[in-house]
Design a protein that fits this description.
The chain is α+β, with helices and mostly antiparallel strands. Helix content is about 65%, strand content about 10%. The protein is elongated and about 90 Å long.
């Protein structure tokens, strides 16, 4: 393996450990002091902790042992190894930082639910971005999907719902409701971090004035535009479709340009994440330079054509 490959793997495992640390801080600073639960196996471990005082991390590791074996048997060594790393590191750090429970950062249940959910969501998102996980119900959901064609999200939701209902029955309705808030915030932040924080906008434009719109966008918004050949579904007429990815601050400029040339243009603006390539993660030459090079190339082709004639 090259040095680059070694550093890449090392960086991935550092990200996993950092994500686990952030999750554990959310647990021990906010969730556990407020007597809240979380989804998954850790939620079961918290219920037992509140009733008996057994360490949460030790329980989390013990309950995940059969799930880790299941991951190995069903998905193979690589998936199982990454799951083991995430589960073991999370469990160890969870108990190692348990002393923070006594710090009493806040006595407000809602603040605890929100900030605990935020930290847990950021941490889990970092772990998932590193193509790892921390075992628990995600593995169970993946197995259910593979063998029974059940949706992973549905399986995890049902199991989490059972845990929350147990919380309401064993403790109090207020704590169960705060737990729901925490689980929701965790899920939202996990999805956002896992999908990427560099949120851009993708735009589709269908208009007879596509050529003029394209030219204006490239000159004034300084974004590349892609033509897509299309055909109307009713009359089967030819349609020019423009596709462009822009930053959030550039959306209004694109809308202004489109409205100027064709107020009746059909346009779709949607969220896009993980955008990479020229103009976003790579340097891109200006429209004027690209236009000049294209014109020079056209002149060369024209001269060659005349020479052959």
């Amino acid at each position: 393996m090259s040095n680059f490959g070694i550093w890449k793997h090392a960086g991935r495992y550092i990200q996993i450990m950092l994500g686990c640390l952030i999750v554990c801080l959310g647990f021990n600073l906010f969730i556990i002091p407020a007597h809240l639960l979380t989804g998954g196996i850790s939620g079961v471990a918290l219920i037992i902790y509140y009733l008996t005082g057994l360490p949460v991390g030790m329980q989390n590791l013990a309950y995940n042992l059969p799930i880790l074996y299941l991951a190995y048997r069903v998905f193979g060594k690589l998936y199982a190894w990454d799951t083991i790393v995430g589960t073991v590191v999370l469990s160890l750090i969870l108990d190692a930082t348990h002393f923070m429970v006594d710090w009493n950062v806040t006595n407000d249940g809602m603040l605890s639910a929100i900030f605990g959910g935020v930290m847990a969501g950021i941490g889990f998102g970092m772990i998932f971005r590193a193509n790892a996980n921390t075992g628990g119900l995600d593995v169970v959901g993946a197995v259910a999907k593979k063998f029974y064609s059940l949706d992973v999200g549905t399986v995890v939701f049902v199991l989490n719902f059972v845990i929350v209902m147990a919380s309401a029955w064993m403790f109090s309705v207020d704590e169960a409701l705060y737990t729901l808030v925490s689980i929701y915030v965790t899920a939202e932040l996990t999805n956002r971090v896992a999908a990427g924080l560099n949120r851009e906008k993708s735009i589709f434009i269908v208009s007879p004035a596509a050529e003029k719109i394209c030219q204006d966008i490239m000159e004034n918004v300084h974004r590349g535009v892609t033509y897509i050949e299309g055909k109307g579904g009713f009359a089967r007429e030819h349609k020019d479709i423009l596709f462009i990815v822009v930053r959030l601050t550039q959306v209004s400029r694109v809308k202004t340009i489109v409205d100027h040339y064709d107020p009746q243009a059909f346009m779709i603006v949607s969220d896009t994440s993980e955008v990479s390539g020229k103009g976003f993660t790579l340097e891109c030459e200006s429209y004027q330079d690209a236009r000049r090079k294209w014109q020079e190339e056209q002149e060369k082709q024209k001269l060659l054509h005349n020479a052959h004639d």
